[in-house]
Every structure is written in C-alpha cells, then in structure tokens.
Amino acid sequence: MLLDGRSVLVTGGSAGIGQAIAIGAARQGANVAINYHGDDEGAEHTLDQVRQAGSKGIAVKGDVADPKTAEEFVSTATKALGGVDVFVSNAGICPFHAFLDMPQETVERTVQVNLLGAYYMVQAGARQMVEQGRGGSIIAVSSISALVGGEFQTHYTPTKAGVLSLMQSTAIALGKHQIRCNALLPGTIETDINRDDLSDPEKRKYMEARTPLGRLGEPEDLAGPAIFLASDMARYVTGAALLVDGGMYVNLQ
C-alpha cells in the first residue's frame, strides 16, 4: 500500500488516464478527490471503483480553464480528505485540426485548458501543501508531444511542452518546501482524446508498428508510474520527465 492514508487529487478524473490514476491510487490505500468537467457518469464510475477499493472518494465538478475552479477543488478536497499529499494535473484536450486554417477559438481553448488550467491547479495544490508544511508530490501529465511535433497538433504540442517546463520550474520553486514536481509523458494512449483518430485502421497499424512493445498504451499503463512518483519510492526524484510510451520516442529507424 504505497499511498496508504494519503490524500490524492486528480484533475480530469472521470475518464482515461485521470480515471486510471485515481483508481490506482485508491487501490494503493489513498483517499481520492477528482475534478471533472462534464461526464457525470464517468465521475461516478471512478468514485465507485475508489470506494470498492476501501477508500474515500469525492468528485468536484468544474472547468479547469477557470482559475476559480482550482481554488474550489483544492478547498473542497482539503475539507473532505484532511489535506493534499499528492496532486495530479491531468485534464487536457486535443481537438485535431490542420495548422493553416486552425480556428482561433480552438487554439485559445486548448491553451486555457491544457496550460493555464494546469498552472492554476498546480499552484492551488502547492499553496495547500506549503500551508500544511509536510511536503508532497505534484505530478503533471504532459505528453510525448512535448518532445516531438504533430501535423494536426500545432496548438496542442506547445501546451504539453509548457506543462513539462512548468514541472521543471516548480521543482526548483517548491523544493525548499519538500514538494517534488515531476512530469509523465504518455505516448499514444487510447482515450477519448484520440479515439476518432485511431479509428482509421491504417493509422492505428502505423502507430502500433512505431511502438517497440507492439501495442498502443492503455490508461492503466500510466497508473503505476504515477503511483511511483507519488510514493516514497521516488522521494529523491523531482524535476524529472518519465516517458511512458512503449518505446515510441526512441524508435527512429
């Protein structure tokens, strides 16, 4: 039970990677609070799984693009769970679109959710951890796209590079408070974000062939790495970027 008795907050916890991390944390003994935007059914499923693991779980609805959501999420979770030990900033969007006719509203919404949303959520979580005075772990879900480009992701890849950079800078800013900050960089993970893109059999076959492990990732593949970074097993790990991509990034030939 690597997270026994700890309070873990996860944004975007109603589906995909966030849901898998929330459930995985509960199975390691953590009490869990999730933030989610619109999927009530998905949020309830997460909470059901958290409670089946014997842990306490709450859900707080709100749009991470609104800075007030971060304050409300952390405040509500702190009251319900007794504090914040681990904060996982995961919420993100990626509406695929060509570069030359990219709508302004698509760019701005992606930046607001992926980068500014992460910034304000991490800041709120860090403030609570500093006030508590017992350290903590902050994990942000960046992406392999922080390191490589994507033809239909020109609005998305800069935000994920920004999230990676945010973890590097906060690791420096918060180290004196014994708060560790690290980034997870998933490769191609099958979630709602890319389900339409991967529905093309040829695209799917190509992505699988690019991955040395021979398959696309599943949300549960991120739970273990997140739990490691959240736990005392990673007590001297901060400012790190952990690729979870089946080897895709290094497969250049």
TrEMBL record:
The keyword Oxidoreductase belongs to this UniProt entry's keyword annotation: yes
Coiled-coil region: none
Keyword terms of this UniProt record: Oxidoreductase
Source species, domain of life: Bacteria
One Pfam short name: adh_short_C2
InterPro entries associated with the record: NAD(P)-bd_dom_sf, SDR_fam
Matching NCBIfam families: PRK07231.1 (NF005559)
Family: Belongs to the short-chain dehydrogenases/reductases (SDR) family.
Protein name per its UniProtKB record: SDR family oxidoreductase
Species: Aquisalinus luteolus
Lineage of the species this protein comes from: Bacteria, Pseudomonadati, Pseudomonadota, Alphaproteobacteria, Parvularculales
